[in-house]
Every structure is written in structure tokens, then in C-alpha cells.
Design brief:
This protein is mostly helical. The chain has two domains: 97 residues, no CATH class; 62 residues. The chain is 80% helix and 0% strand. It is built from seven helices and no strands. α1 packs across α3 and α4 packs across α5. The protein is rod-shaped, with a radius of gyration of 34 Å.
Length: 172
Amino acid sequence: MAEEIPLRPLGKQDIHKLETALLIATLLRPDVIEEIRKAEERLTWVDSLAVAAAALARSKAGYPASKIADELGRSEGTIRNHLAGKTKAGKLIHETYRRFLREGVRIEIPEVVEEQYKREIEKLRKEIEELNNVKVELENKVKSLEEKVRTLEEASKYKQKLEEIKRIIASI
């Protein structure tokens, strides 16, 4: 069962849920993934998305821009720009929020990412199969060596008995 994400948060926990959903859903958009790939200041750009998501979630909970700025450690102007959609991060987060309003909160993994996971899973399956084959080969070698050890131990016992018989014969 999917966790309920409130679009009008009432408390800190709800704010955190909405903030997280906004950030993840925005980050997984194919166009945003492409932007992140080619962004020179990737961390700064992702940080802006995080701040815009946090600002919008708090704004939807009724927080004034000044309180949001204090909580997030950003200037009130930066927060207002994100909330007004004047920044690229603010626009993207607002688009995600509007999509949530229209379609409900759904976070979908893009096909590109899904395909990467599928390829990785297939690669890991092949590795597991190869390792299982090696394991079977090693188990067979161990059994063979154990059998040789038993044979040698028996031969050693016979050799000892033969030596004992030789000593008895020599003493007679």
C-alpha cells in the first residue's frame, strides 16, 4: 500500500513527505535527469531543486516566506523567487505539484532508469549463474579429492600392514 502524501500538509511530518515526493518526482523526470547529466554545477542545481521543494511544501502548509527562509537557511528573496516560479527549480517543482494535483501523487521511474536496472539485474543473474557453476565444479573437485584422500588412507593402512607382515616374516 502506497503511503499517503498530503498535498496540503498539516504538520512537520506531512511537510517532509510532500517535500520528499516533490523532489524525487522532479528528479526522476527525463528532462531533469538530462539537465543534471549536462549541468556543470550539478550539486548546486540539485540543491536548488531541494530548496524549491522544501519551500513549496512549507508554503502549502501555510508558512510565510520569512519563516521558510529561516528554516531553510536561505534568503527571503530566494524563497520568494522559488515560490513564484521565477527560478528554473521553482518552475519544475511547481509543475510537479500541479501534476500531483491533477493525477495524484505518483512517482514513476523513467524507462531509461528502468532499462538500466533491468540490464544490471540481468548482468547480476548471469554472474550468479556463473558463480553457481563454479561452485558446483569446486564441490565436485572437493568430492574427488576427498575420495583420493580416502584411497590414500586405505593404501597407507595396507602399507602399514604389509610392513608389519614383512617384519613378522623377517623375524621368523
